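hiii so um. not sure if this is the right channel but i have a protein structure encoded as tokens and i wanna go backwards to a sequence. like what aa goes where. can anyone help
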């Protein structure tokens, strides 16, 4: 039993191996337009006015 445990501990562990590349390929996410604080405030105000029926 001891010899088997020592052999297992001496073997290369999966965490010690160097990863060559990512295991999964990620699709490129769609770009989100960058808005200024003023533009965001204007959009929120327009949404509030639309909900209020104005």
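sure thing!! here u go:
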């Amino acid at each position: 039993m001891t010899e088997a445990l020592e052999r297992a501990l001496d073997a290369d562990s999966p965490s010690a191996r160097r990863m060559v590349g990512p295991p999964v390929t990620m699709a490129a996410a769609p770009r989100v337009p960058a808005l200024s604080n003023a533009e965001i405030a204007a959009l929120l105000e327009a949404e509030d006015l639309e909900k209020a029926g104005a």
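oh and The mean pLDDT is 81.
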